[in-house]
Amino acid sequence: SLWRRAREMIHESAPWESRLLRDAALIERWAARPGQSERRSFFVEQKVFLAAYAMRKLGEGLKVSTDLLSADMKLLRFPPSEPGFNLFNNHRFGEHFDLESPLQVSLLRRRVLNLLVHSLVFAEVLGDAETYDAFMVTSDYERDRGLLQVNIAAFVELMRLVGNDWPTSARWVREPRGDGWRVWAGHGEAPEVAQMARRVR
Question: What is the pLDDT of residues 136-186, one digit of tens each?
């Protein structure tokens, strides 16, 4: 029956991780091609979004080390210059963010994945030879802080780290009030409960 076929999301992570590794190589190859094209733009955008979703789901399913997605990623943030940025004018992001005054910031890798999944704008950044060097992204929740630029090399590196990560230990502890869980996956012994990520269920 249909009920018998229901199971945990991403029950077997190997096919997802293998696809991440293959797509990392494809993104890298396509991004390095000189010359702008609609085909390349669509291809890289599609692979980036699918990878972000897959990595987030692998993390939520404890198929990736908690510490890996909790580590920082270095980004550029372009601060807001004019209010009112929304879904209907997101193609005019240059009018709403100061693209001349970027700030170097660090965000948790998990937060970068969330930005992509819930993105309000996604724009490619080209190098001198019109190679695909980076992308800009923000979301409804992040737009008041600014527009973020993620290097393709850093994103591809994250895809490879996730694709090659196989946690050997996992732990989840019910909150005393019963309103959620403390969860952890990784290598070696789990940290103290207070240091584990809290998830409401």
Answer: 999 888 888 989 999 999 999 999 999 999 999 988 888 888 788 888 899
How far apart are the C-alpha atoms of 102 and 106, rounded to whole Å? 13
106 strand-pairing partners:
74
* 163/58 Cα distance (integer angstroms): 10
Please list the residues that pair with 149 across neighbouring strands.
76, 136
The structure's pTM equals 0.88
Q: Which of 59-68, 78-87, 108-117 has the lowest mean pLDDT?
A: 78-87
Q: At a CB cut-off of 8 Å and minimum separation 6, what does 6 contact?
A: none
Q: Whole-angstrom Cα distance, residue 147 to residue 185?
A: 31
Instruction: Return the residue matching tokens 């199971």.
Output: 7
Q: How far is CA 180 from CA 61, 78, 196, 201, in A?
A: 15, 36, 12, 5
HSE-up of 121 (CA within 13 Å, CB side)? 25
Contact between 94 and 119 under an 8 Å Cβ cutoff? The reply is: no
Encoded amino acid at 105, one letter: V
Q: Smallest Cα–Cα separation from 124: which of 20, 29, 43?
A: 43
Write down how long the chain is. 201
